[in-house]
């Protein structure tokens, strides 16, 4: 597989969130504000990239009977590494993300990419695939968080954008709005990429 | 001979090696980052306390007196024992259950004495906690500042308790109403009297948690607070009426809140 296609595919045409509909749960939870969404996106990118790399390196010696357990151990370890570093060096953000960092372990994208890609491809390809899928996820998260923070709080990254005349739309802060926004993004995406439309 | 990767022996050795490596890695990481993480937590506690005092830019060390409340009596905590107090503040479960030896912080500025008490409770999804700063007035105790934080309240709704917008509303609220009952609360539908503040729309459960937290956490200090309040009153009364030492002592012993 071409490396460049390997990288660009998950960003748009085969985006994990809006095409494969994976990782929706955390997209609902951390997209109220832009900053946590950004850090969450980068954390997931780190975890998908390195779990893909490690699993690809291990793939030849891996007993297939316990491969899911090994995948979970590797992913959980990487998530704890992220969590510990955030606590030590980005304490405020780590407090904002609270439990959601730990919940990266359960993000379907991470295990999905290890299972579907890393176990059958070379380490470097797998690493690129992990980065690309993580960024594809991060991009959607940031897009959703942009709309939710802008209309829900009238601010972006905590800075007030809309003046006092704007009454924040509290509906945007509820999780269902994230789902509706993702739905709208999928709608736009499919109307542009006609080959994704079911006949 | 090729190794059978699905034999029990291979799997057991594989898992043991994996667990040892992962365990060593995480243990190394946790110990090497622990100092930095603990410093973050301690610093956050001190900053929160100073924020509650309304002196966010001041340095905690040197201006704040740490104390413990035992049976309504204030005792100063020596420097050597301060670590234990911060550890207790970090252990929300133990802090919530504590009934004596309660931590308290005192700061005097321009002749005004303020106290900061830690508060802990439960919100909708998890723990909520913070610090409230109190000051005695002649006939009541008022909140001069409050800092609150949460483990996992809904962002934009219950989590708003951690914002200045909500916390600023508490400033100047008197703790006890005319009957002497604890009256500060976040009121659904908007504040209805001078003790109440507006609750957060969509965050009612969290606000209920804040109400319970304030009442129980401050309630534990009530004997101390009422005692101090009585002293302030007695001093005022003494200055106005008394000429002898005896009646002043009586005034101090007498319970307060009789004049209404």
Summarize the structure.
Chain A is mainly alpha-helical. Chain A has nine helices and two strands. Chain A is globular, with a radius of gyration of 18 Å.
Q: Order of strands side by side in the largest beta sheet of chain B?
A: 2-1-3-4-5-6
Please tell me how large the radius of gyration of chain A is: 18 Å
| Number of E-state strands of chain A | 2
- Estimate the global geometry of chain B from the Cα principal axes: elongated
State mean pLDDT of chain B (0 to 100 scale): 83
The pLDDT mean of chain A sits at: 86
Structure description:
- The complex is a heterodimer of chains A (199) and B (260).
- By secondary structure, chain A is an all-alpha fold.
- In chain A, 65% of the residues lie in helices and 2% in strands.
- Chain A contains nine helices and two strands; from the N terminus they run H-H-H-H-H-H-H-H-E-E-H.
- Chain A has helices at residues 3-8, 24-29, 34-58, 67-89, 91-97, 99-102, 108-116, 123-153, 175-192; strands spanning 155-156, 159-160.
- In chain A, helix 3 packs parallel to helix 7 (108-116) and helix 8 packs across helix 9 (175-192).
- The longest helix of chain A has 31 residues, at 123-153.
- Chain B has 260 residues and is α+β, with helices and mostly antiparallel strands.
- Chain B has one domain (53-253).
- In chain B, 43% of the residues lie in helices and 21% in strands.
- In chain B, strands 2-1-3-4-5-6 form a six-stranded antiparallel β-sheet. Chain B has a two-stranded parallel ribbon with strand order 7-8.
- The relative contact order of chain B is 0.10.
List the helices and strands and how they pair.
The complex is a heterodimer of chains A (199) and B (260).
Chain A: H1 3-8, H2 24-29, H3 34-58, H4 67-89, H5 91-97, H6 99-102, H7 108-116, H8 123-153, E1 155-156, E2 159-160, H9 175-192
Antiparallel strand pairs in A: 1-2
Chain B: H1 8-53, H2 60-63, E1 65-70, E2 73-76, H3 82-90, H4 92-97, E3 102-109, E4 112-122, E5 127-136, E6 141-150, H5 164-167, E7 185-187, E8 196-198, H6 204-219, H7 222-240, H8 245-253
Helix pairs in contact in B: 7-8
